[in-house]
Amino acid sequence: MSNRNLVNQTIQKLENLLGEGTYQVGDKLPVEKVLAEECGVGRSTLREAVKILEHAGVLTVKQGSGTYVNQHRVATYSTEQLLEIREMLEVQSGKLATSRFTTEELMELKEVLFERNEALEKGRFAHYVEADLNFHWLIVKASRNPFLIRWYQEILPDLKQTLSSFVLRTDNYSDNTELHQVIFQALVEQDEATVVAATLENNQRELVRYAKK
């Protein structure tokens, strides 16, 4: 079994434990060794599952204390609204960045894209989400527009939690790697129309994921 599938199964086992009421809001989970045995996996696999659950706001890891079950926070916005503003910012940033990327910045973007794809393949979902957001963040920064940069920076923590929650829904999750490759290549070729079209498609797929949750 691939590491990605093993992490998927561990996530489901942990969510089942929480859903069945084995652990309640505020409860401290067993130490890593015990919890790994309870899930029937190695400790490294458990760590990856816990990381993505932490990113999604399900768990809180307190250094030196342990891992606790979170109380779901009440958001002042809907997920749909968050994805709408993300689309607006990424599309406009992509338009501007197409002609403003430096060679060095494109090299960095290529490295982050490789890092993103490798993390997904190996089932390192928390790292995958971080690298995925970093890919888009680098494009926003390349827009050289301080307002776009500030506004996108403000929604990054919420995007991290939302996208992590999408990854948890492994039955419905489908990766957009090919679209990210298209966006990168279009930026290299300074093809603004393709950058915009692929960015729109990527965001529309996120809305579909949200609808399936």
UniProtKB/TrEMBL annotation:
CDD domains: WHTH_GntR. Residues 4-72 form the HTH gntR-type domain. One of its GO terms (molecular function) is DNA-binding transcription factor activity. Pfam families: FCD, GntR. It comes from the Bacteria. Keywords: DNA-binding, Transcription, Transcription regulation. InterPro entries: GntR_C, TF_FadR/GntR_C, Tscrpt_reg_HTH_GntR, WH-like_DNA-bd_sf, WH_DNA-bd_sf. This is Bacterial regulatory s, gntR family protein. It comes from Carnobacterium maltaromaticum LMA28.
